[in-house]
Amino acid sequence: xxxxxxxxxxxxxxxxxxxxxxxxxxxxxxxxxxxxxxxxxxxxxxxxxxxxxxxxxxxxxxxxxxxxxxxxxxxxxxxxxxxxxxxxxxxxxxxxxxxxxxxxxxxxxxxxxxxxxxxxxxxxxxxxxxxxxxxxxxxxxxxxxxxxxxxxxxxxxxxxxxxxxxxxxxxxxxxxxxxxxxxxxxxxxxxxxxxxxxxxxxxxxxxxxxxxxxxxxxxxxxxxxxxxxxxxxxxxxxxxxxxxxxxxxxxxxxxxxxxxxxxxxxxxxxxxxxxxxxxxxxxxxxxxxxxxxxxxx
Length: 297
Ligand code: NAD
What we know:
6-stranded parallel β-sheet; 3-stranded mixed β-sheet; 13 helices; 9 strands; globular; binds nicotinamide-adenine-dinucleotide
């Protein structure tokens, strides 16, 4: 019997290590990405490539997506040369963060061709993608979830959040608002301390032993801000997109987000100052530039 083929569209920061994990688990994998260098880098590991999303969907029954924006997911799934034109695909598992409304729209469009859409955003960053320790938030019918569990476990810890597309996206937006908020407000606290003469390493030790500890003080500051590398591995443009989607969704639901809106504006200014390709830890550079000090050590 032929070995089952898995498709993967979008092999960027997250998609590359996730496709590698499938391959390391012995699966046959076919990828598409317009970035030829990213595709070529996977060839040495025996990962095959196809010329379009439609070509991937012509070979693979299950296709994974890890794409930057709702518009790109929509185009890849249902546009010209999109997955919808492939004959073999039955299930599309979307790891991208696109917000609940886009997830529902894409799920409906695919359902018209009897293709199931699995809403499956992930958290845990590039290190989690490499190690297979991501939090994988899944919403789809229970029977399909049960069927996909073994392959999804390749990527990390699974959480089944509901039956319909969109619920996992809402969960992911809540998580990413908190992740960005932690960097924004920790940057303000750290810059203030440094300007007053405190040692940033000692500040982090105290905060992490106390009630102020959070994912920024425990992980982002030591890894990407104190060394001045600003290379944690998550783009400002992507974080800005996530927080924008989150505040928009809260508005739709009638939930005021005062702090969320402030975090969105911090990301808007970081995006304008350092560009969408900069790392989201660059929020600290912004506060540093306003205060005229640097948080290094
Ligand atoms: P990335 O920008 O590194 O990768 C996106 C990839 O999609 C690129 O290789 C790009 O060439 C490709 N792409 C763009 N347009 C395409 C198209 N039309 N067809 C096929 N491929 C196309 O982004 P990333 O950091 O890997 O993030 C991917 C998704 O995962 C985003 O939705 C992001 O919000 C989410 N996410 C990222 C992280 C992280 O830490 N980087 C963590 C969790 C979730």
